[in-house]
Amino acid sequence: MTIQHKMIEARPAPRSTVGPIAWLRANLFSGPVNTVFTLIGIYLLYLLLTPTIQWAFINADWIGTSRDDCSREGACWVFVSARFTQFIYGLYPRSELWRVDVTFITFAALIAWLAIPRLPFKRWVALATLVAFPIFAYFMLYGGHFGLPQVPTHRWGGLMLTLVLAVVGMVGALPIGILLALGRRSQMPIVKSFCVVFIEFWRGVPLITVLFMASVMLPLFMPTGVSVDRLIRAFIGITLFQSAYMAEVIRGGLQAIPRGQEEAAAALGMSYWMRMGLIVLPQALKMMIPGIVNTFISLFKDTTLVMIIGLFDLLGIVQAALSDSRWLGFSLEGYVFAAFMFWVFCFSMSRYSQYLERKLHTGHKR
Amino acid sequence: MSVRPKAHSLGPKPPFWRDRAKRALIFQALLIAAVVVFLLYIIGNTQDNLAARGITTGFGFLTNTAGFGIVQSLIDYSSQSTYGRTFVVGLLNTLLVSALGIIAATIIGFTVGIARLSPNWLIARLASGYIEIFRNIPLLLQIFFWYFAVLRAMPSARDSYSLGEVIFLNVRGLYVPEPLFESGFGLIPLAFGVAIVASIALTIWNKRRHEATGQRLPAGWISLGLIVGLPLLVLFVTGVPVTWDVPELRGFNFRGGITIIPEFLALWLALSIYTASFIAEIVRSGIQAIPHGQTEAAQALSLPQNLVLRLVVVPQALRVIIPPLTSQYLNLIKNSSLATAIGYPDLVSVFAGTTLNQTGQAIEVIAMTMAVYLTISLLVSMFMNWFNARVALVER
């Protein structure tokens, strides 16, 4: 009998289960049906991608200032670059663009601070974002104080207006949504039914009719002689509409908090607002961040509807540029550019909300 | 330890603002008062404004002559018709595009959602690519894309794309043959009805027999054969009493057949493709919500694969799928109002748009439009709740 003293070298895994070929066999060609599907998929990709890449990159024109620089064989991105400033800032005075830049860089920094989990002082930054920043943004963008010339809202447009509408709509809808959600769970029958009717009403009608209402009926509701800025009308419409959706998201969060939490707080002698403000809402809101991000994504996409009431958001200003007689026939380039901008914003937000969902989920797992 | 005063045990009654019931009453009374004051303020202002502009309120305008044409109407309509009729035309157009959109979105959504779970890596990636692209681009942009960049860029009638010289696509829309029914065609719907009744009877009988003897017929296939086969049989026996009115190019335009306007096509495509990307995710999460053990347990009972799907996976997945699916259907119906941006004559476009501009009756028009959408929303969610309750019963 012989005794093996040396360790036998680990043998490589059988060739048929590792490596690219095995991967291909397992994932793409595991049977006749799968093979057919794979081939159809490859053909589809070929059909879609080759003309797209040809059009968007290989045959595209990138450099130039007017339509004479377009060879017309592929996409003419000259149209986008010539109009880029307008697409981003609308008709904001060219000499004042730095104000928009400063505002949005500040906003991006605040949001980044909130979004990166490692950074400290979250509560104070959140407070600054929700309270101090809107005031700062108002003075920066609208002006009229501190030596900054006033920029009337009809000159606002492009991506800037899209962001302003989405952020204001969100910041406005959050507190109203919280109140409505609390009201819907209230034990006072009149408060409860008032909130239910309010939520169901705004959720049951399309945003476009809300915007129509804000733009046509709001002036009728005001005292004679008082006129409301068109942008403010859009804000009011969007905020009312969005607060109903926000209320439902927050209600979901409130329902997820065990009843015992509130009962324990009540047993300590806390009042209703202390129980809600210190115990229930912070937990519910934390749990609902992914839902709130999703609401924000849909609001961000919905801001495009303001072009129907005559405001020029990113899509509106692209659409307006397309009807410019010097640039007729570039609708594809315009839409692809706008779609890409919206897509980048929405996709990164949805990825972030998925990341949060995973992160917060482990926190609640037992 | 400090001595605390006794709470409200035996002492004097607490003041009324500490009494929860009374406080609730006061708070609610204040709320009602605030709402009433707010409404009175708005109504007062509105009356002043309307008087200043010389607008009379009321629904009398609905009987006035509209005086404008509508490019697509499912009922007889001319510019001599009343505003009331434009309302109905717009409503029907909204319902048409919503119904067809829901059907298409459901088919695409279920296909993509199931493809996303495919073991085939490439198919799964293609499906998730579809979802991520179309979900993250605003619907209005997609409508514009299909309308202005695709359908408005089609060739003129003379150079139309054609499919077998029967179906034509050009800048004015899609032209398809129109079936003209001759006498004797009435038998075919009749046969269809008979086939449906027979299939229902067969299904019930099959279920009873299954419960009694444990044997079952492939009732689904037999029903499908009946429903497709019987009308076809009658069709051929009666000698195909249908002729097709094929569109033909005469002069500058096509005559005959059915014209599907590009506005409808663009809206329908965009609504279906956009909503399908959300439905696909709902379907995927619904299927993934069924624990794998369920499938394995059913297989261990030696149920064949199709019965595992039909009796175990699908009924449970439907319970997860139906509530969010309802909201997607509702979203689609509400989103069809974006028609107004490209001029498809839906309710918002012809009524809250043209009619409002011509009559100035803002309050009545907006209220009627909103009431329609609210009613549809409530009806759909009632129906889906009923259906949901039925499906949920399967669980026991």
Automatic annotation (TrEMBL), chain A:
Coiled-coil residue windows: none
PROSITE patterns, per the entry: ABC_TM1 (PS50928)
Molecular function GO terms recorded: transmembrane transporter activity
Subcellular location: Cell inner membrane; Cell membrane
InterPro entries: AA_ABC_transptr_permease_3TM, ArtM/GltK/GlnP/TcyL/YhdX-like, MetI-like, MetI-like_sf
Keywords: Amino-acid transport, Cell membrane, Membrane, Transmembrane, Transmembrane helix, Transport
Domain ABC transmembrane type-1: 159-353
Protein topology in the membrane: Multi-pass membrane protein
Alphabetized Pfam families for the sequence: BPD_transp_1
Listed GO CC annotations: ATP-binding cassette (ABC) transporter complex
Chain ranges passing through the membrane: 33-53, 98-117, 124-144, 156-182, 194-221, 272-293, 305-322, 334-352
Gene Ontology BP, a term: amino acid transport
PANTHER family, A to Z: INNER MEMBRANE AMINO-ACID ABC TRANSPORTER PERMEASE PROTEIN YHDY (PTHR30614:SF41), MEMBRANE COMPONENT OF AMINO ACID ABC TRANSPORTER (PTHR30614)
NCBIfam families per the UniProt record, alphabetical: HEQRo_perm_3TM
Similarity section: Belongs to the binding-protein-dependent transport system permease family. HisMQ subfamily.
Record protein name field: Amino acid ABC transporter permease
UniProtKB/TrEMBL annotation, chain B:
MF GO annotations: transmembrane transporter activity
Gene3D superfamilies: MetI-like
UniProt KW keywords: Amino-acid transport, Cell membrane, Membrane, Transmembrane, Transmembrane helix, Transport
Subcellular location: Cell inner membrane; Cell membrane
Keyword Transmembrane: yes
Pfam families per UniProt: BPD_transp_1
Membrane topology: Multi-pass membrane protein
InterPro entries, sorted: AA_ABC_transptr_permease_3TM, ArtM/GltK/GlnP/TcyL/YhdX-like, MetI-like, MetI-like_sf
GO BP of this protein: amino acid transport
Family: Belongs to the binding-protein-dependent transport system permease family. HisMQ subfamily.
PANTHER family registered for this protein in UniProt: AMINO-ACID ABC TRANSPORTER PERMEASE PROTEIN YHDX-RELATED, MEMBRANE COMPONENT OF AMINO ACID ABC TRANSPORTER
Protein name: Amino acid ABC transporter permease
Species per Swiss-Prot/TrEMBL record: Billgrantia tianxiuensis
